[in-house]
Amino acid sequence: MAAAAATEAGLEVARGVADELTQLIPLAPLTSALGEAGFALSTARDIPGPADQRLLLLEDLQEPLERRVAQGPMLITLDDVQWADPMTLLAVRSLTRDLASSPLAWMLARTSGSGDAPRLDRLFRLLEREGATRIRLDPLDGGAVAEVVADVLGAAPEPDVLALAEIADANPFLLVDLLEKLKSEGGIQVSDGRARMVSTRLPRAQAVTRARLDELSAPTRHLLQVAGVLGRSFSVKDLAEMLGESTGDLLPMLEEATSAGIIKSAGYELAFRHDLLWEAVTGTLPTAVRRALHHEAGEMLLKRGGSAVPAAAHLIRSASRGDAWALLGLDQAAREVLRSSPQTAADLAKRALELTDPADPDWVGRAATAVDALTAMGRLSEAADLVRPALSRASPRLAHRLRCALAYILLLSGRPADAVGEAESLLSEQDLSDDLRGVAEWTVFWGLISLNDLTNGQRRAEAVLADRDRHSDAAVAGALLMLSRFAMVDGRVADSFAHLNEALRIANSGTVEAIQRPYARLLLSLNYRCLCQFDAADMAIQTAQEDIKTLGVTVLAAQPALFRARVKLAVGRFDDAVAEAQAAMMIADDMGTQGFIRVGLSILAYIDVRQGHIDAAVGHIERYLSQPGAPGMLFGSAWERWVEAVVAEARGDLEGAMDILRPTYTDKEKQRWTLITVPLGAAWMTRLALATGHRPYAETIVDTAEHLAGNNPDYPVFAAAAAHARGLLRQDPAALDCAAANHPQPWERASAAEDLGVLLAATTGASARKQAVDRLDQALDGYQRVGALRDAARVRARLRALGVRRRHWVQPQRPAFGWDSLTDTERAVAGLIARGMTNRQAAARMFLSPHTVSTHLRRIFAKLDIASRVELACIVAEKCPALLRDS
């Protein structure tokens, strides 16, 4: 009815249905709704290695769908989503969020108590949280029953007729079936516009449904039983092949079943008219017969060639332990969907393992497939638990592969020391293949980077580069990344860039494992951001994002948004930083890489402190502390540890903040890396040390900051940071003035101006007081421009102590709604979307993630109180037509 109403209203309607026997096929319900021509599945793309194609599949869905709905409003209905495959649930989650600003409506229908209930319940909760309406269809009430009865019988029902609802459990289908049966047999009399029962003997509703089947001829019943095994919907070709008949021979039976209301046409297939009829048909089959028919269906589909996934749906229901034919089919299906739906691949591989005798040599290969799938999904502990028993049974060659996988799993699990140990043990094997040796050596280098074990890393990297010909490109690239990190921490920025660029040159040659290229690009962006070269950082992040998607390195999917959040934070665009951090956390949650949620929470906590939301910051830190470490730990722990200290200081716990950072104060390498990755860390840590009476700690921070500045005269951020820290330690107004004038980041300039104002305010004389007020005004303006409300409030309090009162905003505050409420980024997004760009096109133009563009659009629509892109285009044309012109 909803689809019909939508069609009458002029909406394009796409209908899809999930099926218990198609839930192994990635995106089957959406493919049935949109048509296979609606998007080009990325499974056809030739991507080397164990690439995870989920990001590409989502893009292949979103791009054409976004263009399609741009032509007019659309409704997508998906029925029986309790049987939807994991990739479909992920796509629904992503598309409903990213196309929320498009004229696209969704209607999802499910039953309870079947299918993947936990994952589906989670999806429905998320959709409700974002504004979806959940409608629970309870049994028909008395009024609804009366309307149904009156509609079917054409007369008002007497109480004895209404009692039929109890027999049918108030189920509409069963009630109508029962009424029609009784009406046709004369069991209901209609007179004077009233309907009453003729007999007091009432059949059970299910018996009526069964009777409908019993009235069919024996050949038709047998045909329906085989059709029921093929699924709720089925191909006539498959049915004919299963029965060993021609399609023409089936026509009389199909016509009988259709006339009896058992089956109906469903596009290119036939389908049972209702689940209850399908269940009634399959329920007539003994379990042994049903299993045998599923086995025959699986064999038929396998022998036909092509995809093994449809066959696997039957084999998984019929295979017995040691069934070699069925197990080979499950193996093939698991390998097919490994890239597009690792959840399904894991389910198939684990089911095959259950059916495999432990002594069977194929058990280890099946375990390896399950390990790959579980790793891609982020279910790392399960993957590790499966590797260990497999190692004891594997051949040396397969054992090497599994140990290499285990080292990588440990690295992703935030256990770099264990990863290094496993990889080094593997490297001691004499018969290790060159490709696995390269991966293992790269893992060692990345583990040492994650551990900040730069001394051992440098020694090992120099040994590799001194004898390049004996090492793979993967090992050489890993050594260069190691030396790049060491040079950066050592304060030799130019050397760091040289090593990174050479590693990227090797990675771009195509001879290195795919995962290494995005890692190298993200490190490059980190270097650029540390040096406040923000445009270059954005470009490196954008390239890394494309690599992650096209190479299938889904484990890093959330990283570009996290790196971009830090860039936005550095330039003082707090709203954009929040949007990127939230987008990253959603991606991490969607793709199963929950470790990155921790990094996002640390970013949100820091912004909350700056904006004065201390309770919210504490909440983020508490949640952060309960999360596992970030996979790969590209940020390292320096940023996160520093944010913990910032939140502790904001709560007034200065000693707690000092305890958190004590290892950094006492370790030169940790100091250098912290001061490089957190440019304002030098001044902040100097101030904290002085406030807690630890002047020697303050002096060592200043020494490290000046070492970095002296080694890198071409990068002014180091000189400005050192001047700020030195000014605090030495009470040097000239140094603070230098930092306030020259630091490339706006919050840091404001902080230096505030510190200078405080120093001058403590000096006697009218001139010093005026200078103090001027500097505090400079700080107030800087803080307010970036939205650092807590810092601005502190400066206003300092000004009041000097007898000066300032308004909360030097400039008028942005309103909550209307065009003037939009931020600069939101206006830029509005302009690009108004020009007809898709979310992805706008994201590429603005160096944002598509998820972030979607977040901005939702905010724009709320602020402008609109519901369509057409309305947005009209507003942009009226308020700022310049945005519609290409720049």
Automatic annotation (TrEMBL):
Superkingdom classification of source: Bacteria
Keyword tags: ATP-binding, Nucleotide-binding
Could you tell me which residue ranges the HTH luxR-type domain spans?
A: 815-880
GO molecular function terms attached to this record: adenylate cyclase activity; ATP binding; DNA binding
A Pfam family name for this chain?
A: GerE
Any single biological process term in GO = regulation of DNA-templated transcription
Which GO CC terms are listed, alphabetically? cytoplasm
- Protein name stated in the entry: LuxR family transcriptional regulator
| UniProt organism field | Planotetraspora thailandica
Lineage summary? Bacteria, Bacillati, Actinomycetota, Actinomycetes, Streptosporangiales
